[in-house]
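Quick one: structure tokens for this chain, please?
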Amino acid sequence: MKVGDVKTMTGVETRSVSRDSLFLLANVSVEQQSAQHRVRVRNLSDGGMMGEGTMKVNRGNRVDVELRNVGSVKGTVAWVQDQRFGIAFDEEIDSQAARAPSNSAGAHGGADANPVSYAHRAPPTPKDSNNLRKI
């Protein structure tokens, strides 16, 4: 979905997009500014992200986001509140790739193309839960 399209990341459309809460770092720079800022990615979807950091951005700023395993992604600041801000990406990304460990074989097209990362969520419950002890 492109910025010029009618269905850009606004209002109701954004709330229907699947997103996961996570903690990830990214480098963000505002177009036509040389400074690059390290920000926390609080949630990420294929169409955008919520970032948090001390960088000063305004709604409508064009930005370039460097995400692990994804690379450079261009977007527009959709909202700003205190030190948090939303970015609508120009093109959809594979948000699952950003969650994968940066040294995983899957991120570089290795034999294990879809490694499961539990870095940001609990591992699945074992199939035989009778052997679990209660705490």
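The radius of gyration is 17 Å.
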